[in-house]
Amino acid sequence: MNTDDDLIRFEAEGAPPLPADGDVAYTEHDGARIWHAAYGDGPAVVLLHGGLGHSGNWGYQVPALVAHGYRTVVIDSRR
């Protein structure tokens, strides 16, 4: 198994793009506009980045979760 536990490769290369076949939308409420996308079917897993990250950081995890039968939802911070 090829791991990157120290995040050296991730820091240098970033994550691959999110899949192109997601259900992409924005939710607006009280002046906030929040982007989100969902992929796959099955029990839901919600991925919310922290700090200065963004949903694109989940490019490795989304395909793996979908392949294992999960509906995977990624959410960006308020815009």
Automatic annotation (TrEMBL):
InterPro entries: AB_hydrolase_fold
Name of the protein in question: Alpha/beta hydrolase
Organism: Vulcanimicrobium alpinum
